[in-house]
Amino acid sequence: NDTGREVLWRLSELQKMAFLKGQLIHEAIKHQISNYNAGRGIDINVAKDSFLSQFDSTMRNMKLVITEAANGFPPEKNEINKTKEDTLKQLENFCNAIWNNYRNVNYLSHEKNEEFLIDGIRVRIKYDLLTEKDGMHIITDWKTGSSGFDDIDENIQVGTYILWLHKAKEIPISMIKGEIVYLRSGDTEITERNEGDMEKLSDFIKKDASDMLAVKSEDDFPASPEPKKCIGCNFLSVCNEGKEVLI
Question: Among residues of the chain, what percentage have pLDDT more than 70?
Answer without folding.
Answer: 98
